[in-house]
Amino acid sequence: MERSSVRAGELDVTYLTCGSGPLALCMHGFPDSPFTWRHLMPVLAEHGYRAVAPFQRGYAPTTVAPSGVYQTAALARDANALHEALGGDEHAIIIGHDWGAPTVCGAALDEPQRWSKVVSMSVPPGPALGVSFLGNLAQIQRSWYMFFFQHALSNHVVAANDLAFIDMLWSQWSPGYDASEDLPHVKDALRNPEHLQAALGYYRATLGDGKRDPELSALQQRIGSEFPSQPMLYLHGENCGCIGIEVAQAAQATAPSHVRFEYVADAGHFVQVEQPARVNQLILDFLAS
Fold it and tell me: Class of 2-288 per CATH?
């Protein structure tokens, strides 16, 4: 894979890329980096796509946002700006994991003509996750870190001991997975304090007093309530320690027929690195359908 950069919207975006053909944009989440797409990108390239995995807004070496805005709708607009900057066409596909999941849904909702198919993982589309915060105590317990991030103390705790907090989250969310190949890349993207603050800013813009752009409010509301109109595949690890499988099943119960759900056995939250062969095949079958 090659590394390159491009101006997209208000950001200078660094990205990994391989292959040629229609754009396949792969968006990562927290605490993560584009390197967790290392199994999928070459396979997409082999099947005729130009796979691109950017460092998301605020993750080094992509620049922090001059606007200070880190809400999901801004991430969605970033994805569409990348489609434009990279010369994508109507055959482009978009794939996202964790924060990348609502990002790709938002991009597909906002400018549907840019994306032919949508794949998301580990954060269910539609309103199911938001609804779970109103009565699913098990999910509220799993999501404790989101509430902790609203407090200034988290700035110091997450950064301490070479970002050991991130090691803890990976071990809780993907039990039994050896993340030694992934964590150095994640920490490189977040070790600088201003980049770590940007990543925590995603949560503060969602649940706290983080800066929001009023012009994005309509799209923000759609991301939390609607499903994209394009054919869509959603993947969820059966052992996910971040978002319970029951939340994904609740999303499936309300999803329209063009949204396909698949549950990946022997996988937690980071399905694309825990079960790469299975995930890659599910995505290839979906793209070929």
Answer: alpha beta
pLDDT digits (tens, 9 = 90+) for 247-282: 999 999 999 999 999 999 999 999 999 999 999 999
| Distance, C-alpha 49 to centroid of its chain | 20
Residue 12 CB partners (closer than 8 Å, separation 6+) = 5, 6, 62, 63
67 near 144, Cβ under 8 Å? Answer: no
Please name which of 26, 27, 96, 91 lies closest in space to residue 56, comparing C-alpha atoms.
27
Q: What is the pTM of this model?
A: 0.97
Q: Which residues of the chain have pLDDT under 70?
A: none
Q: In the prediction, which pLDDT does 155 show?
A: 96
In DSSP terms, 143 is beta-bridged to none
Angle at 101 between CA 209 and CA 73, to 5 degrees: 40
3-state SS class at 2: strand
Domain ranges of the chain: 2-288
Q: Which residue is it, tokens 């950017």? A: 54
Q: Is the separation of the CB atoms in 188 and 34 below 8 Å?
A: no
User: If you search the block for the tokens 């499903």, which residue do you land on?
Assistant: 227
Tens-digit pLDDT profile for residues 89-114: 999 999 999 999 999 999 999 999 99
Pairwise CA distance, residues 110 & 106, whole Å? 6
